[in-house]
Amino acid sequence: MSHPSTNTSEELPAHPLAGLGWNARVEAAFDAVALGGPDVLLPARVSEARRGAVGVRMPNHETATLSPTVRRAAEADPFTAPTSGDWVAVRRSGDTWLVEAVLERSGTLVRQGVAKDSHDQALAANVDAVLICEAADQGPNVGRLERFLSLAWTSGAAPVVAVTKAELAGDRLPEVVELVASVTTGAEVHAVSAHTGLGLEALAAQLRPGATWVLLGTSGAGKSSLLNALAGRTAMETGEIRDDRRGRHTTTHRQLIPMPGGALFLDIPGVRRIDVPGDGTGVDRTFSDVNELADRCRFRDCSHGTEPGCAVRAAVDEGELDSGRLERWFRLRREAEWNRSRSDARVRAERRKEWKRNTREGREAGRLKRGH
To answer: Which GO terms describe its molecular function (predicted)?
Structure first.
């Protein structure tokens, strides 16, 4: 006599959105928004962001417009606008889908607002890992790489560095990889070539099913070619390289791309300006080696200048720490502090503006009540 299997996990059908990264955290966030409401809401994931609308997967691809509530919130603070990777709650309205809510985010890649009164911009949301592409034939630019790493660490996602176009480095490749590794404390480094296949198998092994990755790098870093090689198909168009060895922007909007093994990639446009977030945790993680040295200084408030017993300066004198890396640490810490103070000032200004508006509305209501 046969007995039914007791392994119920194998018998339960997979969630229809499992291939888009659906998990227990997202389910709880959706339930908090959808349960008990007047409308029937469905979960969907944003595959590309547009002005006033988004492309969503649920699991089929659809176009959804923003509800008035979501639109007003995005106008007041663009950071809240749906972006690539976001999970949203949508409902049917006639022949269209409406985005009624953006679910709580995790692993958000944020670009610092660059104007005095500007808001931060969410480049990608619900990211598990960031693949930073640095072309072997273009440097590498370690200062830029440190900024990308700070951006990635701040998001809460794990950064991985791909030294792309490895075939163009020739005999310099070991030197390039060593230089990259010297500034990527805590992050894996892979030398890869989309043309020869070098390193692709080891990198692909990192792409676990259900995980969401984002590609980060400047134009010409070989992001699209690498993504196509990992996907085994033409998932992204590639662009020609200009005479100055810099690539042309081939990605002009954000896309959600499924990979053969079940991982997902968010491809976003090449980031021209890399501002260090005001949250200093990203800089601290990027320069963890320098911070460890700073903890050994004799004085807790050591400025790492001329104080006696400074372990940081001693490491530079002994060749343990590169002086250029120390100067970049100083620079990024100052920038993070400035951006944090600017953000705090903006929040205070907005609160004052809201307080004044509420005061005016209260006075007007009082006058109407008195019959004036």
So the answer is: GTP binding; GTPase activity; metal ion binding; rRNA binding
CATH code, domain carrying 82: 2.40.50.140
303 assigned binding-site residue: no
User: Is residue 338 situated within a structural domain?
Assistant: no
Q: Cα separations (Å) of 99 from 55, 62, 121, 208? A: 11, 12, 19, 29
Among 267, 290, 323, identify where a domain stops.
Answer: 267
Query: Is 220 marked as binding a ligand?
Result: yes
225 is in an annotated binding site: yes
In the chain, the number of structural domains is 2
User: Is 310 labeled as ligand-binding?
Assistant: yes
Confirm whether residue 222 is marked as ligand binding: yes
Question: What letter represents residue 16's amino acid?
Answer: P
Q: Check the annotation: does 217 bind a ligand.
A: yes
Q: How far is CA 95 from CA 49, 64, 65, 68, in A?
A: 20, 10, 11, 17
Is 119 flagged in the annotation as binding? no
Confirm or deny that 85 is annotated as ligand binding.
no
For 41, the domain range is 13-102
Residues 148 and 152: their CA atoms lie apart, in Å, by: 6
Q: Are the CB atoms for 209 and 263 separated by under 8 Å?
A: yes
106 assigned to a ligand binding site? no
Asked whether residue 249 falls in the same domain as residue 156, the answer is yes
Say what the pLDDT of residue 49 is: 85
Amino acid 274: pLDDT: 74
Shared-domain flag, residues 141 and 253: yes
297 assigned ligand-binding residue: yes
Q: Among residues 102, 117, 148, which one ends one of the domains? A: 102
Task: Confirm or deny that 37 is annotated as ligand binding.
Answer: no
Half-sphere exposure of 305 (CA within 13 A, CB side): 2
Query: What is the average pLDDT value for the chain, to the nearest integer?
Result: 85
Q: How confident is the model at residue 354 (pLDDT cuts 50, 70, 90)?
A: low
Higher pLDDT, 371 or 171: 171
The reply to whether 302 sits in an annotated binding site is yes
Find out whether 190 is annotated in a ligand binding site: no
Question: Which pTM was predicted?
Answer: 0.81
Does any domain span residue 369?
no
